[in-house]
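From the pipeline queue, job 12 of 40. The input is one protein chain; the requested action is below.

Action: predict structure.
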Amino acid sequence: MAGPSTEWFERDVRPAIDGGLIRYEGTVEPAGRDELLAGAAALLYPITYPEPFGLVMIEAMACGTPVAAFGVGAVPELVQQGVGGHWVSPGESLGGAVESAVQLDRNRVRQSAVERFGYRRMVEAYEGLYRQVARQRQQEG
């Protein structure tokens, strides 16, 4: 496990960390993060506030690591149920989402992330949007 320590983490999660099967690495730099994500069974993303975009979820899926999360904010848009991971409503147990996520085909998780969020696809989408805006401005103009 890696990430910042919060009151919730200290109260509800840290007591379950055994230092063997479950380790807590604290906050990690990008190189360490990539290594952890690539080797993880799943990314646990337990946020409960509606974050507008969660880049770490895409980074995990690009490594072939499925996501288990609460379905708030951008999570339902970014994590396709049964493809890139599983999410549940806030208040539900993440345990079932984790169990389902770790069963997913990691190659398919990565393939889907690249198809949806790879730089080529993103560049094409931005260029298309810019062309559309430019055409609209010319028509208005």
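Job complete. The mean pLDDT is 92.
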